[in-house]
Amino acid sequence: MIQFDNLSKRYPGGFEALRNVSFKMDAGEMAFLTGHSGAGKSTLLKLLMLMERPTSGNLLINGKNLNRLSNSQIPMYRRQVGVVFQNHQLLLDRSVFDNVALPLQVTGYPASEVGRRVRAALDGVGLLDKEQQNPMALSGGEQQRVGIARAVVHKPRILLADEPTGNLDPELSTEIMALFRRFQSVGVTVLIATHDISLINRMQLRIMRLEDGELTDDGGGYGGY
Amino acid sequence: MAATDNNRDANQRGASGQKLSFSNRWRAYKSHHRTTLRTSFNKMLHEPLQTILTVMVIAIALTLPAALYLTVDNVQQLGSNFESSAQITVFVQQGAKTKAIQDLESQLTTMPAVASVDYISAKQALLEFKALSGFGSALRYLEDNPLPAIFLVQPRVEGEIDLAETTKVVEAIGALSVVDDVQIDMAWLQRLHSLTEMGHKLVLALGITLGIGVLLVIGNTIRLAIESRRDEIIVVKLVGGTNAYVRRPFLYTGFLLGLLGALIASIMLFSCLLWMSSSIENLASLYQSQYRIEGLGVAGFFTLMLLGAVFGLGGAWIAVSRHLRDIEPK
To answer: How far apart are CA A181 and CA B116, in angstroms?
Structure first.
């Protein structure tokens, strides 16, 4: 599903964020991406979102080379991807419902379909009763869950999460990881960037470690799995 | 277990957003346009001061050239009322033989550019002068009739008067025998013509200048709107919104601003005309004229609305194409 092929990213200032990164993820696979801040986690996710383009090397999604996508094809590509942001990126001028509905409206779903799917997504994160509230009125954990509902409402094939448990207590983190597991179980490829070691240790998942832009470790978890 | 997984997989694919039917898409597209129009309008209502200021600037910028256009138009109409009286006076040489005068008359009537010819003999002219001028008693001291015989020639006028053509006619008449002099009272018409021509150019220049002003004002308003919705634009782009989708609400806002500005401009023009019409009718009645001032009319109203909408869209388009590109998720 996701294939990085000897990919490097150098920013205009000369900073090399990623160096010769190669890895593969199958459809329905779930993995952690870890490393110190500045190691290149965010850059890797940005490349997957086509917010950045690689300097060299190829990035293949479902066998298709993203380098060949023109700028006008980017929106169509992004509709297959769901993203959960650390700072949740919710819009505070509209209700929870309207926030979650955005990916569907953008794609052109009829209103009835939008309502059905948004409620299903909110139900999935346990926030069905909050649909008419403003995100500002919610707790941090609830906001993060709204962000997750928005990331999955259009049933993407790839789900990316950037520090999804960044500001949450362990209990909420576990809850959110359980959510991700559910999506994985229906065939979504899930990649979670985090440096929450305790979270990683609790889950038996593939771990990819970035150090100074290089993929140094790719395999089983810590603590001798 | 494997079967369940397969089912789930099928569900997942079946629902994966990529297979929306065209009619569904079209309906959603239309409904998105409707919602965008509504939300754009609501957003404008939420910032009433900014909206009113922008709309008023647009309205004034549209009213000024439109008012000038109406003035020029009315003056031109006033002029065309008098154009039919563009009469050519042909003075016959003193002491011309009756035969020569009759020849001249037939020559004049057969000219294709001439509509009608009236002959006023020297005697008739003298009688008329006595009756009208009040110098009748003074004329008794004159031995001879000092007045020449004249022909009043009405040129054929179709629609607008053609000054060059009329001048040619005057020259042709002047070349005929026993014609002493040809006069045409057209100088003031000529002046009126060049005045209205100048007026039209002024309307155009003012229209272009203020049109650019309208573009800039709308562009600036839209730029502020874009700036205040930066977060929303970024999120919409991240979830796969196309540039057209992101552009749409701003284009609608510009369109609405322009349309509202044009509407207010029409209302201002209408009230202005209403306010002036009684004094203009008074003035016209003093001149025993049936003259009525011409307003914008239905066609003019729609033209103004169209112009407002086009300027609104144009200004928004300029702002959007300049500023939206800078806003990319980072």
So the answer is: 102
Size of interface A-B (CB pairs under 8 A): 88
Interface test with B, best of A76, A106, A143, A189 (most B CBs within 10 A): A106
| Shortest CA distance from A91: residue in chain B | B232
User: Do the Cβ atoms of A103 and B240 come within 8 Å?
Assistant: yes
Rounded to 5°, angle at Cα A147 from A142 and A152: 125
The region that residue B103 occupies, defined by phi over 0 for left and psi between -120 and 50 for alpha, beta otherwise, is: alpha
**Domains identified in chain A, total number:** 1
Structure tokens at A186: 């229906």
Query: What residues form DSSP beta bridges with A193?
Result: A33, A162
Same domain, B180 and B205: no
Distance from CA of A223 to the nearest CA of B (A): 30
Whether residues B131 and B113 share a domain: the answer is yes
Distance CA A220, CA A172 (A): 24
- Which B positions 205-234 lie with beta carbon below 8 A of chain A? 231-232, 234
A103: which chain B residues are within 8 Å (Cβ-Cβ)?
A: 239-240
pLDDT tens for residues A124-158?
888 999 999 999 999 888 898 999 999 999 999 99
Put simply, the answer to whether B232 touches A154 (Cβ < 8 Å) is no
A interface with B, Cβ–Cβ < 8 A, is 49, 51, 72, 75-80, 83, 89, 91, 93, 102-111, 113, 150, 154-157, 185-188
**B-interface mutation test, from A88, A105, A116, most B Cβ less than 10 A away:** A105
Write the single-letter amino acid at A119. R
What is the ipTM, given to two decimal places?
0.88
Question: Is residue A59 a part of any domain in this protein?
Answer: no
| B34-63 residue pLDDT tens | 888 888 888 888 888 888 999 999 999 999
Over the Cα atoms of chain B, what is R_g?
35
Report the 10 Å Cβ neighbour count for B271: 10
Contact B179, B169 (CB under 8 A): no
Global pTM reads 0.72
Domain that holds residue B321: 34-81+192-326
Contacts of A147 in chain B (CB under 8 A): none
CATH number at residue A158: 3.40.50.300
- Whole-angstrom Cα distance, residue A179 to residue A164? 11
Q: Which two tokens stand for residue A208?
A: 């990819």
Question: Which residues sit opposite B48 in a β-bridge?
Answer: none
B200 and B311 inside one domain:
yes
As separate numbers, helices (DSSP H) first and strands (DSSP E) second, chain A gives 7, 10
> Do the strands A2-10 and B114-120 form a parallel or antiparallel pair, or are they unpaired?
unpaired
Contact with chain A for residue B277, Cβ under 8 A: no
Domain co-membership, B165 together with B202: no
